[in-house]
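Section handout 9: paired folding examples.
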Amino acid sequence: MPDVGIQATFTKLRRPSLADGFDAVYEVRFDGRGGFLVRSDTGVRSAEESET
């Protein structure tokens, strides 16, 4: 029954936002080609573009 505690905690989680005091919030996902997609509040760009 240890899964019950994990499920209870998971239901309390929410996505962070700028209102929480962060300077920026990013969502990072795999792009399916060996790289990453980085999404900010301004749009989506590849990880390669982020490095420049």
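Moving on to protein 2 of 2.
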Amino acid sequence: MKVFFQIVQSLKNFIVEIGEMSYFSIRFLKEFYKKPYEFQEFLKQCYSIGNRSLFLVSVTGFIIGLVFTLQTRPTLMEFGAVSWMPSMVSISIIREIGPIITGLICAGKIGSGIGAEIGSMRVTEQIDAMEVSGTNPFKYLVVTRILATTAMLPILVFYSDFIAIFGSYLVENLKGDVSFLQYFNQVFDNIEFSDLLPATIKTFFFGFAIGMVGCFKGYQCKSGTRGVGIAANSAVVYSSMLLFVIDFIAVLITNIFIE
């Protein structure tokens, strides 16, 4: 019976949190259209998010390309289909592997950073001080960060895709003596608009989800410095789960309308 009540309480807390996050999202949409527009803060956040994620995204993308090609090449060799390697790797990375892996990396790096930053401002009463001074903290802190993550994640995904494909080319160049032009000509010959469009659209939703969850967890932070750690951790967990849900929905819609 005690376990049952714990499950019910956990489910109740989860539903309440979904409702609070929905209200938070609606408030974001309302504040988005209000003046003044914090354009300088938006650019600052874009630079900060892109700059602090670039190295991690580069290393991750490069390793994805190397490992994926090294693991797949022996199987293709058994069937005499090594020539399909550039097209298979590029389509797999662009459609699915690149966006979801980069999204998860950014959820860990960016989402936790936003949650901890805003959470620390909440527990040290900096947000309350901004309200007293006449500044709209929601507009300045939340709206700019959500817009920055929404704008920067597609760019990071494109960059990660290119690095991953380049890593795959290096393996093919060393193992099969394939030239740069030969490899990338085959890549671009097999990539279609239906591969790029859904992958690009869902990265905007990935960025929005990461920014929204990170800001929500930080803005609702309580319990002092301990709450900052909880906010950062839960921002990563919730945004990562949300990325998988968005990705699943995107794949379903793509299969219905495009394929």
